[in-house]
Amino acid sequence: MEGELPAAAECASGLPSGGVGAHSPPTLLPAEVLDLDGEEDDLEVFSKDASFTDMNSFSPVMPTSPLSMINQVKFEDEPDLKDLFITVDDPESHVTTIETFITYRIVTKTSRGEFDSSEFEVRRRYQDFLWLKGRLEDTHPTLIVPPLPEKFIMKGMVERFNDDFIETRRKALHKFLNRIADHPTLTFNEDFKMFLTAQAGELSAHRKQGPGLLSKVGQTVRAVALSMRGVRSRPEEFMEMSDFIETFSQKINLIDKISQRIYKEGREYFDELKEYGPIHTLWSESEEDLADTLSGVASCIDRCGRATEKRLSGLSEALLPVVHEYVLYSEMLMGVMKRRDQIQAELDSKVEALGSKKAETELLREEIGRLEDRAECANSALKADWERWKENMRNDIRSAFSDLAARNVRYYEQCLATWEAFLTSQNDLHSKEPSEDTL
Fold it and tell me: What is d(CA 297, CA 418) in angstroms, rounded to the nearest whole number?
């Protein structure tokens, strides 16, 4: 099924046969990203916790435990060679009289013949990423474009961008671009190529060539009208797809909420451990007979505290970003399904008009023919990308929970070993003390 995607998406986007798709786009390994951003005068925050770090969900390069399934998964059609490497780094703050914003350096290395050079370096701000995502959705309405996470606006802050926020965003943007590079069709999109290669002025001029405001308003009005009209008979396979998305959205949102709560409670527990250990140390200074025991307890608490901090770090790296990304993917999928329905609704409306002979019959037949081709291409693209997305999703979730399980096992084993060693030392100490009978 995955092999059908380039041709189907090429049809949906109106590309001629033998065009971009003729390069036999390889399936690339993605990297790390999600994201955040906001308005000109607002601080945008990526997620509920800025400490979340990136996770290369698809790539075996991601640090995982031996139990992680990510190293056991190999796609049958996956080539061993990458020909497009993208990194996002070097955040730079820009302050003007109007706004403050961050740009990031994007370095692209490639061996593809359609690029003018083998290496490019550009700087982009978050609004540029928003533009790219919008263009990909416009060009490929029924392909699953990677999500950019929602923005949370925080007004009145003295420091607009802290280091955690900037680093979280950098990793998120890195992941976003590499997911696109990994996609067998989106990776060959001309706007994506322009985004990676054009300097700021050239990209700005390219962006202005897009649809004007009136055209966008007209498209929006037509989309709203079609969505209000709805589709008369959605095919069974897309009904099943829609049901899956709805159920998946409910489950992944609940998992995200619980995971966030577990992480928050874990942080509170860790903060209490940091206070708990020193109390025993102070206590030992005033209890000569219990000094060794209390010092030992303080040492155990300190070790368990460090293990707890490491476990929380693993939770934020291995599970939380993956779960939250798929929360956003569920929202993206609903948008994809809505766009598919709009295409079908437009076709249905023309067929209905032809049946009632409310317009020129010959012109309607020609338009219906074009809409039928468009609907067929859109449906084929979605079906192919759907199977690809489900496979990647299952691998990601399986890997995240397997890695989390391995981390939890190590954590509890470490804490158990710490306290067992303490008990052994106390037993040895008591066995060496002379009993009352020997005195």
Answer: 10
